[in-house]
């Protein structure tokens, strides 16, 4: 969502079977070839994502990595953060420019589709490598960070759904309601990623 996310428009997907952040159907002459992802599928992915995060927490409580492994995990954790957060910043920046009338909606959706893989790979990398860093799962800051990570993940699934609705208006005026939803998804994305990053920094120096 770490950090984490999310998420102006957090990260589209070109197919219904690929669900990272801003997900809009791929640009093609036949939109019917890529029907919108059913809500039940997104809900199921939300449940699976929550279960995966809980499994990572369980693993973190039972793993005792030696110093060399922890050093490697810390480096990969930083790499995942750079990849994921960097891609999120690019997508959300294009989204802000679109809301200001300085970019077309298609520019945002295409950028999001292009960067969906690094965003979700970065988020997954943060969760996996974090399991080897010996987090204190009883600390309030750690629990807060985990909540942000979950929020980023669920926001990405919501952004997938929202991106498909926006794709339907790529040649028409986007309804105000969808613009507000896009802005909210962007805000959650940024707050989640940056919040989790700050908490991770504080935990590493405590």
UniProtKB/TrEMBL annotation:
Organism: Streptomyces piniterrae
Protein name: Uncharacterized protein
Membrane-crossing segments per the record: 40-63, 75-100, 112-133, 139-161
Keywords, alphabetical: Membrane, Transmembrane, Transmembrane helix
């Amino acid at each position: 969502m770490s950090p984490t996310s999310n998420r102006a428009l957090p990260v589209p997907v070109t197919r219904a079977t690929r669900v990272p952040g801003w997900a809009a159907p791929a640009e093609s002459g036949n939109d019917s070839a890529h029907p919108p992802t059913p809500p039940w599928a997104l809900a199921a992915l939300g449940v699976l994502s929550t279960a995966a995060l809980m499994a990572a927490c369980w693993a973190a409580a039972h793993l005792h990595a030696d110093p060399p492994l922890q050093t490697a995990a810390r480096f990969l954790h930083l790499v995942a953060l750079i990849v994921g957060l960097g891609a999120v910043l690019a997508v959300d920046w294009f989204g802000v420019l679109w809301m200001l009338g300085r970019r077309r909606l298609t520019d945002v959706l295409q950028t999001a589709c292009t960067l969906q893989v690094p965003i979700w790979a970065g988020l997954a990398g943060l969760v996996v490598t974090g399991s080897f860093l010996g987090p204190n799962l009883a600390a309030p800051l750690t629990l807060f960070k985990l909540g942000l990570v979950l929020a980023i993940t669920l926001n990405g699934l919501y952004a997938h759904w929202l991106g498909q609705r926006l794709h339907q208006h790529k040649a028409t005026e986007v309804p105000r309601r969808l613009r507000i939803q896009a802005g909210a998804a962007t805000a959650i994305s940024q707050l989640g990623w940056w919040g989790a990053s700050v908490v991770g920094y504080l935990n590493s120096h405590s």
